[in-house]
Amino acid sequence: MMVFVLLLVIAAIVLGIVGAVADGLFYLLVIGVVVFVVALALATARLRRAGRRPVR
Hey, which bits of the chain come out as E strands? Predict the structure, then answer.
């Protein structure tokens, strides 16, 4: 799961850089930001779930 989150973060960075540098591709920057937010949400959900231990 964390590998998937890392791949999402890398994809968001690449999309953000391409969207910021390329002329007329601002929508890629927006998509990169959305992908980054989704990756953060997944990582947060994973960490919260992993922090809880079953009660015996």
Answer: none
